[in-house]
Amino acid sequence: MTALKEHSSTSTTTARRKRRKQASAVSGPARERILQAAEHLFAEHGMSGVGLRTITAAAKVNLAAISYHFGSKDGLLEALFAARAAPIAEERMRLLAECTKAADGSPALENILDAFVRPTLTLGPQTPQGGHAFGRLRARLATEPERLARKILAKAFDHSSKMFIEAIVAALPEIPRPDIEWRFHFMLGSMFYTMANSGRIQALTDGRCDPGDAQRALHHMIPFLAAGFRSPPVPE
Amino acid sequence: MTALKEHSSTSTTTARRKRRKQASAVSGPARERILQAAEHLFAEHGMSGVGLRTITAAAKVNLAAISYHFGSKDGLLEALFAARAAPIAEERMRLLAECTKAADGSPALENILDAFVRPTLTLGPQTPQGGHAFGRLRARLATEPERLARKILAKAFDHSSKMFIEAIVAALPEIPRPDIEWRFHFMLGSMFYTMANSGRIQALTDGRCDPGDAQRALHHMIPFLAAGFRSPPVPE
DNA sequence: ACATCAAACAAACGACTGTTTAATCTACCC
DNA sequence: GGGTAGATTAAACAGTCGTTTGTTTGATGT
């Protein structure tokens, strides 16, 4: 681990656990290779669908390396999000600030929505099967009622999500907040389903519609969502 | 097994496999109890997140009963969909026919979308945590790139989905088909995410927005989607 | 009373699960 | 060189995985 200060004397097991919790900062190439392998395998097969041996084999690393660098399988997932989610959330906020500034404080709804969705669909390396591995993983976790998944997603994206809800509320003064919140939820659904790129819409449309094409997806998605957001508030 | 015609003499193993494949028709209460337990457990923890022992324990059934009634774990999932998906797809088609007839062949977009989404959010028993277990399971499988999940979802819902795409195309003659197909994809995303009811939007809105409330969800969702579908086609 | 057969059963199969141990290797500082 | 912290390793841990086995139960039809 990165900080191996005190070695034992007292309760070896618990002490070791604590030390491993705070794995971060420095790291060899093994750590990064594990993260990459886990990113792809978790995305394709889900957390419980992949064993540590599959990950370590793909990363060409010893089995114990995961416990060593990340403490546990759950710790690996947390570290993966810590490494991959932050750039996305930051780019979101950067784009929001950019379009807010360019519009003298009142950006167009389309630009806000684009700032929210674009980093999610474009950042990170593309996978051979279309789309981004981390996006797929996020989509998976988004349908997960499990506590760990919720906690990790909230930690990574709650702040930027709340900021964007505020931005949309400000951009649409005639729409009550509850309506905006529902519509934000529907937007999240469309976004996650596009990230998941499960192949279903390709099958339904003989390949004409491909969510793995991020540019085209955004091109269709933003006007669709904007129209939904702008529609009259529902009665009652 | 359901059909124990030829007892062995030849290769016992393969013969037994084949026999078990076609488990159906007759059934005791055990079969249904297994389906119910699997429905909830698969929905909460995913296919690979639950062991057969957990399912059989919840169903108060012997471990071997799953192999006996469904052949395998995958077979159990297929049987579950065969039992639960058909009523939803049928209700969809029924509602579509109903609103088509009521409008003399040209139903309003809102009614088409409602016919598509409503059965998914309302049919089946409600779970204590809000929403329907089978809906949650569908949402899970919808983000799954795995072959089995795709096959099962396609088998259950391809027909009705394609019929609804046609209905929407007919209802919106000024929107080109590719645009409709993209928007249908976004609708699926919103629908699945509502079914998943992961608790995220509740957390973001301090509980004001609750996708587990099917009536309210539909009430907000249909106008949102309709506005998106009706927005002008995107250029190029 | 006997035969038949779906249904349920305990027990075991080998393979795989996440995690831990202790030994080994590597590289840098004194 | 010696010392040592960090990284990596093989091996084993106790469980659980999905599946298969051979047998027993309980009801049905004859």
Give structural notes.
The structure is a homodimer of 236-residue chains. With 236 residues, chain A is mainly alpha-helical. Chain A has two domains: 2-70, Arc Repressor Mutant, subunit A; 84-230, Tetracycline Repressor, domain 2 (Orthogonal Bundle), CATH 1.10.357. Chain A contains eleven helices and no strands. In chain A, helix 5 (73-102) packs antiparallel against helix 6 (109-122). The radius of gyration of chain A is 20 Å and the shape is globular. At the A-B interface, helix 7, helix 8, helix 9, helix 10 and helix 11 of A face helix 7, helix 8, helix 9, helix 10 and helix 11 of B. Chain A binds a DNA duplex (30 and 30 nucleotides) through residues 1-2, 4, 7, 12-13, 16, 26, 28, 30, 51-53, 61-69, 72-73.
Which key phrases capture this entry?
homodimer, 236 residues, mainly alpha, Arc Repressor Mutant, subunit A, Tetracycline Repressor, domain 2, 2 domains, 11 helices, disordered N terminus, DNA-binding
Assembly context of the chains: homodimer
**Helical stretch tally of chain A:** 11
**Biggest pleated sheet of chain A:** none
Total domain modules of chain A: 2
CATH architecture of the largest domain in chain A: Orthogonal Bundle
